[in-house]
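Rotation project, supervised by the postdoc (A.L.). Task for the rotation student: set up a whole-complex structure prediction and record inputs and outputs verbatim in this book. Inputs entered:
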Amino acid sequence: MAPTQAEILAAPKVLLHDHLDGGLRPETVVELAAEIGHELPADDAGELRRWFVESADSGSLERYLETFVHTVAVMQTAEALTRVAAECAEDLAADGVVYAEVRYAPELHLGGGLTLDEVVEAVETGFRLGEQRAAEAGRPIRVATLLTAMRHAARSSEIAELVIRYRESGVVGFDIAGAEAGFPPTRHLDAFEYLRRENAHFTIHAGEAFGLPSIWEALQWCGADRLGHGVRIVDDISVDSEGHTRLGRLAAYVRDKRIPLELCPSSNIQTGAAESIAEHPFGLLARLRFRVTVNTDNRLMSDTSMSRELTLLSEAFGYDLGEFQWFAVNALKSAFIPFDERLALINDVVKPGYAALTAQRTLAGLRPDRVSPRSA
Ligand SMILES: O=c1[nH]cnc2c1ncn2[C@H]1C[C@H](O)[C@@H](CO)O1
Ligand SMILES: [Zn+2]
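Outputs recorded:
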């Protein structure tokens, strides 16, 4: 059966790919911009919300990324960073997210005179504050941080060192983001090699706006633990007229090695990586049992949430609570926090949460859902 909105909201969700500077509340952007005299394309929060979605709906990653100028502009002081991070944790918790890895690029927040370390400390303060407020509101969440380096810039080694410096203080991994075409991940090999020597984790935005060579470099040259998007791995999968599928060597490697795909359906529609949710490779990749995870990417630019992404996928592919649990477990298995902590979240939070939802259906006289998690 189709899950109800109440069930989707209540279902424990796990999010691995969410940008801090892509998830601000429009009201907060308006308030912070007024404080610093930053001119916005719209001064009314509702209009600004629409502006972000319409402008990001450009069919090109480069133009999509231009919208970040207005969010980054209002995130240049410790107070603003702390506020935005706290609200991020609260908003995710209110949406039923129980564990999230949120990323941002510290190098984009130095315009007000903060150092890289001060940026990280302000954001961590905000996440702890947001976690505390969420717990008080009865929606506990754990937020971990990934530090991003911009792939067109040359600060990745510095950011990788920052990850190691703050690995005991909430930072669990590294990422590179920004325009993909023309900026291959191997430009940042020094950073990746350093992180591997430090036994640290990293993901790489790859296979979003550029195809297989980007994914291949991210995995086989750089050693990425996960793929940010990775959706273009479908270019290495052929489906014949009878529906038989054949995996090329790279696709087979990704599936065999259980490389997590941080799939972000709505974002992909906006940047032109997919035509529609119904045609999104998520359905095929899930059917072929890749390690798929569901993500928001940029909640502001896509006007989305984890609940909305799950709703869209459910409508397109018929997913129910069984699949939602599978996606959440997949994400936790792929998270960058220690194994015992991942296991505790799976066994103490995610599975009991889905069991409770199933029990409610049974109580309501509906048939029990198939909450029999597939092995990921
Ligand atoms: O989907 C994306 N692909 C590549 N880069 C992205 C995406 N979403 C956000 N970014 C960039 C813009 C942000 O300023 C930066 C750090 O969060 O990451
Ligand atoms: Zn992203």
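Student's summary: The pocket of 2'-deoxyinosine (ligand 1) is lined by residues 19, 21-22, 61, 65, 68, 72, 103-105, 108, 148, 177-178, 205, 208, 267, 297-298 (CB under 6 Å).
Supervisor addendum: The first strand starts at residue 13 and ends at 19.
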